[in-house]
Design a protein that fits this description.
2 domains, nine-stranded mixed sheet, EC 1.14.13.-, FAD/NAD(P)-binding domain, 27 strands, oxidoreductase, about 500 residues, FAD, five-stranded parallel sheet, 13 helices, alpha/beta
Length: about 500
């Protein structure tokens, strides 16, 4: 147990949970804007980087442009738009080192429970470590571990899987020693991971003999340049401090415009996307079967492919797409409902992720368990009735980090306001007149499987989760701190 004098647990002003993009970025804001505060970043794994350290499958890369996925306070230093995983991991490492955050990260620390005491006005954290359990206390708790379950990916029921004589691997648990050179590979899935794996495994040294993407339902796929031509041009003529904000603003505007046009004119956007895909595939290719989803653009996340690499792999004949349902696995592959059989040596189940809020930790407030579906999310970042707790959920229709940066700025702004007004506790108070809505209005399978386990959203501000950076930038940087919030002064000498 971590203690400080007389067996008392160590107390920190702020504890940040998670050392991925969200945690490192948030800690940088805290370090810069509130350098007098004590804080620690608790990371369950033995290294920083979060998603970009965990996922090691072939071709792993961002599915958002790096000029918006990178931090506003430390712009992405390259013209590459969709960067590979190792480059992003290095960017997170460099950022943590440059801002001194790396000295505050404590590895091998998994928070298993967090208990708020209104009497003491602090959180007590139960933390699992390699040496046993320890406890810490803090005035503010920032949960930056995202909403994916990192120890377990999602795999649906696959009939007859036990009969298959080949290798089955989930991308979340990729074996770096897996040799797929010259092998027949089937990738099950249609999301960002699948469209990354297919071209990556079908080219270069050690490439597979053939890769088949087996999907039940198509996704929208948009080819974009691997590099940003505007970023390349501006970097030659302007200093970075001038060029970077211009590129970032341009890309944010493009993301917002693409989403808004898709939502307001889905038929038009469906036609544009179909035409773009058809132009990059062999003549006569069955676009309407393999690239024509039954839902409208951006009802689920759109897949971005750099320089159309997926289409090039299909055009070369190194890969193909099959849209069908699995009837059963066989000893040598997969039999489909249509009767077609796919021979395979390796099957990759790129079938999605599981959601898990707060890393599965138990939350209590004054000994009462916090039941997430009974809470309402305040500005998409705090929970009704739960004091001094901020969590990070990024955008589903844009770069995750855009929202994280805004929430971190808001948190630092909240701390300043509380200091100025002599407050120690901030509690969002739910308005009974606000009607409940799903927190995430998104049709993706990983969301729909778990939406009943998440906090609720509301039908009006500040209880809505906006998926619009322009709106959030005004609300979180300029909006009222007091709206929907109850504040309490300090009851003891323990500050925030």
């Amino acid at each position: 147990m971590s203690t400080a004098g007389g067996g008392t647990p160590e107390h920190l002003d702020v504890v940040v949970v998670g050392a991925g993009l969200s945690g490192v970025g948030t800690a940088c804001h805290l370090q810069t804007e509130h350098p007098q505060r004590s804080y620690a970043v608790l990371e369950a794994r033995d290294d920083l980087g979060g998603t970009w350290n965990l996922f090691r499958y072939p071709g792993v890369r961002s599915d958002s442009d790096m000029h918006t996925l990178g931090f506003r306070f430390r712009p992405w230093p390259d013209s590459v738009a969709l960067a590979d995983g190792p480059s992003i991991l290095q960017y997170v490492r460099d950022t943590a080192r440059e801002y001194g955050v790396d000295r505050h990260i404590r590895y091998g620390r998994r928070v298993t429970a967090a208990a708020w005491s209104s009497t003491e006005q602090r959180w007590t954290l139960s933390v699992s470590t390699p040496d046993g359990e320890e406890q810490l206390t803090c005035s503010f708790l920032l949960w930056c571990s995202g909403y994916y379950r990192y120890d377990q990916g999602y795999t649906p029921d696959l009939p007859g899987l036990e009969r298959f004589g080949g290798t089955v691997v989930h991308p979340q648990h990729w074996d770096p020693g897996l040799d797929y050179a010259g092998k027949r590979v089937v990738v099950i899935g249609s999301g960002a991971t699948a469209v990354t794996l297919v071209p990556a495994m079908s080219q270069g040294e050690g490439r597979a003999a053939h890769v088949t993407q087996l999907q039940r339902t198509p996704s929208y796929v948009l080819a974009i340049g691997r590099t940003d031509p505007v970023a390349e041009t501006l970097s030659r003529w302007l200093p970075a401090r001038v060029a970077d904000p211009i590129v970032r603003a341009k890309n944010i505007a493009q993301l917002i415009a693409l989403y808004q046009v898709s939502q307001r004119f889905p038929g038009f956007m469906r036609g544009v996307l179909r035409k773009q895909v058809a132009a990059q595939l062999p003549e006569g290719y069955d676009v309407d079967t393999h690239f024509n989803p039954p839902y409208d653009p951006w009802d689920q996340r759109m897949c971005m492919v750099p320089n159309g690499d997926l289409f090039k792999a299909i055009k070369r004949g190194d890969a193909d797409i099959v849209t069908d349902h699995i009837e059963t696995f066989t000893e040598t592959g997969i039999r489909l409902r249509s009767g077609q059989e796919l021979e395979a040596d390796i099957v990759v189940t790129a079938t999605g992720l599981n959601l898990q809020m707060f890393g599965g930790a138990n939350l209590t407030v004054d000994d009462e368990p916090v039941t997430l579906p009974e809470t309402m999310a305040y500005k998409g970042m705090m929970l009704s009735g739960v004091p001094n707790l901020v969590f990070m959920i990024g955008y589903t229709n844009a770069s995750w980090t855009l929202k994280v940066d805004l929430v971190a700025e808001y948190f630092c702004r909240l701390l300043r306001w509380m200091d100025q007004h002599g407050k120690a506790v901030a509690v969002p108070e739910r308005d009974p007149a606000v009607e409940e809505r799903p927190l995430l209005d998104f049709d993706a399978g990983y969301v729909q499987r778990s939406i009943h386990e998440l906090p609720r959203g509301g039908d009006r501000k500040p209880w809505t989760l906006a998926m619009n950076y322009a709106i959030d930038a005004v609300t979180l940087r300029r909006g009222s701190i007091e709206e929907g919030m109850r504040f309490e002064p300090a009851r003891s000498t323990v500050g925030v």
